[in-house]
């Protein structure tokens, strides 16, 4: 990521909005840091940062119930407006021959959310990644509060928009 280009872009936005003065003097640097943080999942190697040494073989007969992770909090930005989204995820998988370390599911959701991505694509990416790594049925439910909808456009209340990916077999 190029700090100078991001900051220059923010300066152009501020100029275009005719905003100047002490209140916005440090805005380009602040916004650059914020955007870099909200996009810090871009380019992250999921295999290395999530699954390396985190998948374990199991005896299929010992686990007969789905493993469920609830209230996974994550943040990201909308690719259409570059405004924040606050997510809450629930991930469930039915182990067959592999399980993943408990913190790995949280890490996966958080890293994938830190990419400018549509919520529907994020749900698919989480589910598909787990299906590929664990070779088992996966269910993902993702709620998102989109600031692009709350603060502009439809100006909805703080409703969470839910998308789900479900595999039953």
Question: What is the compact description of this entry?
Answer:
With about 170 residues, this protein is of the alpha+beta class. The chain contains 6 helices and 6 strands, in the order αααββββααβαβ.
What does this structure look like?
With 169 residues, the chain is of the alpha+beta class. It folds into 2 domains: 3-37; 44-166, GTP cyclohydrolase I, C-terminal domain/NADPH-dependent 7-cyano-7-deazaguanine reductase, N-terminal domain (GTP Cyclohydrolase I, domain 2). The protein is 38% helix and 25% strand. It contains 6 helices and 6 strands; from the N terminus they run H-H-H-E-E-E-E-H-H-E-H-E. The protein has helices at residues 3-16, 27-38, 46-51, 102-113, 119-134, 147-150, and strands at 55-57, 67-77, 84-93, 98-100, 138-146, 161-166. A 4-stranded antiparallel beta sheet has the order 2-3-5-6. The protein has a two-stranded antiparallel ribbon with strand order 1-4. Helix 1 (3-16) crosses helix 2. It starts with a helix and ends with a strand. The model has no long low-confidence stretch (mean pLDDT 90).
């Amino acid at each position: 990521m190029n700090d100078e280009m991001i900051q220059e872009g923010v300066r152009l936005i501020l100029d275009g909005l005719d905003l100047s003065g002490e209140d916005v003097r440090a805005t380009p640097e602040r916004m650059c840091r914020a955007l870099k943080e909200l996009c810090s999942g871009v380019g992250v190697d999921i295999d290395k940062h999530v699954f390396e040494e985190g998948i374990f073989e199991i005896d299929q007969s010992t686990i007969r119930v789905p493993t469920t992770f609830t209230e996974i909090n994550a943040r990201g930005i909308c690719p259409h407006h570059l405004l924040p989204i606050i997510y809450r995820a629930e991930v469930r998988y039915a182990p067959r021959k592999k399980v993943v370390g408990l913190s790995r599911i949280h890490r996966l959701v958080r890293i994938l959310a830190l990419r400018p991505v549509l919520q529907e694509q994020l749900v698919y990416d989480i589910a598909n990644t787990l299906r590929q790594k664990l070779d088992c049925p996966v269910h993902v439910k993702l709620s998102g509060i989109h600031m692009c909808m709350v603060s502009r456009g439809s100006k909805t209340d703080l409703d969470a928009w839910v998308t789900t990916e479900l595999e039953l077999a």
